[in-house]
Write a structure and sequence with these properties.
The protein is mainly alpha-helical. It has five helices and no strands.
């Protein structure tokens, strides 16, 4: 768990440095980039709850890794579409749906 914390701290510092360096007075882009970063931190932190359902946990980890990679591609100007960054939402929604139906039995 400590290794994950160190990795998240490193990813956060690199992203915030890049966001701050490219700021240039565009408050809307700064707010969007910061919100995307905070969402990714939330989605990564949600992984500890998804461990209950192992296949969903593996899918969530794959989607989180994909989203972090896509976020950095977006941050460094390689892609313009941000919808793929929200991929971990699929596994989070599936977690709550699966939990709802599991508790009904």
């Amino acid at each position: 768990m400590v290794k994950l914390g160190i990795l998240l701290a490193l990813l956060f510092i690199v992203a915030m440095y890049k966001i701050y360096r490219d700021y240039e007075g565009d408050k809307k882009k700064f707010a969007l980039d910061t919100a995307l970063l905070l969402f990714l931190l939330f989605a990564t932190g949600f992984s500890k709850y998804a461990r209950v359902y192992l296949p969903l946990f593996v899918a969530h980890l794959i989607l989180v890794l994909f989203a972090w990679g896509y976020f950095y591609l977006y941050l460094f100007g390689r892609v313009r579409n941000i919808i793929s960054i929200f991929a971990p939402l699929l596994s989070i929604i599936a977690f709550f749906i699966l939990g709802y139906f599991s508790s009904q039995t």
